[in-house]
Amino acid sequence: MTEQTITGALPPVRHWPALHLTGVEFDPVLAELMREGPVTRIQLPHGEGWAWLVTRHDDVRMVANDPRFSRAAVMGRQVTRLAPHFIPAAGAVGFADPPDHTRLRRSVAAAFTARGVERLRESARRMLGDLVDEMIQDGPPADLTEAVLSPFPIAVICELMGVPAEDRRSMHTWTQLILSSSHGAEVSERAKDEMSAYFAKLVGDRRDSTGEDVGSLLGAAVGRDELTMDEAVGLAVLIQIGGEAVTNNCGQMFYILLTRPDLWERLRAEPEIRPQAIDELLRYIPHRSAVGLSRIATEDVDIRGVRIREGDAVYVSYLAANRDPDVFPDPERIDFSRSPNPHVSFGFGPHYCVGGMLARLESELMVDALVDRVPGLRLAVPADEVPFRRGALIRGPEALPVTW
Prior knowledge:
Layout: E1 13-15, H1 28-36, E2 39-43, E3 51-54, H2 57-65, E4 69-70, H3 100-106, H4 109-112, H5 114-138, E5 142-143, H6 144-149, H7 151-161, H8 168-178, H9 185-205, H10 214-223, H11 229-259, H12 261-269, H13 274-284, E6 295-297, E7 301-303, E8 306-308, E9 313-316, H14 318-321, H15 356-373, E10 378-379, E11 401-403
């Protein structure tokens, strides 16, 4: 992409480095970009050229839902990006457009309906109860991440995927390597290849299955020639990785609650507000670093007076959209009574997170279990000593030392 692509006055290209941010600090570069305008230009640490960045809530939703902005068109291009890896792969649902994207999502939809998610509620509650029992029995202090926040989402997503319990540790290791840029592209790509090989075997073994887990649904779809094996594996990897993102998101949630005793006490005293409070925490937490996946404009499009030309790369910032003051009055304040709360923490449009309902269920179960069963839970170290993951694409604490 060159300066000659677009005529007229252009905003400057801002370099957006991969910052190591701790706590729930909002990215200062993103804050500056939001102040500069609703549509700016950025250059990320990897890839080539520059891309447009859209930050206002309405514009973010429009771009995410508009077929003129294509994920599939990213294939074969080295768009500027945050991570050294995550290069588009053939069959990846994240880089598919409707109707292919619709076909891919349909193959696993049954597992993520309200009924499909509710099917997991009781088994998830039991697994969580066992983890909390063990933490209480071992006594304080404890690492909440190691004791609950990491093993619980892993157990739930592996059960949903049909991954046996003995393989959960491997899944967790692969996911952490894929979701980090600190180990280098080669390590991350090798982890992705190993996870892909695992799912190729699991899906291949279940071509004739009638099970309700995602592995069986994908196997059956491949068996009916509705998906290729590459498509099924790409979808399985995406869902598995997304399922573990709950660990980091909930780590940030509990970091907030443990550093804001007033919020913790309100959840304890008013259990009826917990679902609404979780939505507000989802809106507020900076759940990722920088931006996610790009799109390519397939024709000229005007956004707030800025002409985006055919072929230009475009990013949306869901973090910025969740702090849009025109939609969320006093956006820097955590308001458990905020209503309406049209946050876009799970995305928007065709690429809305397939596991959003499951992630919300897991968050609600963890808040219920910990607030009710360990009401005196508190940080065991000063807030600024809580270590946060370095190089993580999904932000969150590496450990959450607690006592009670």
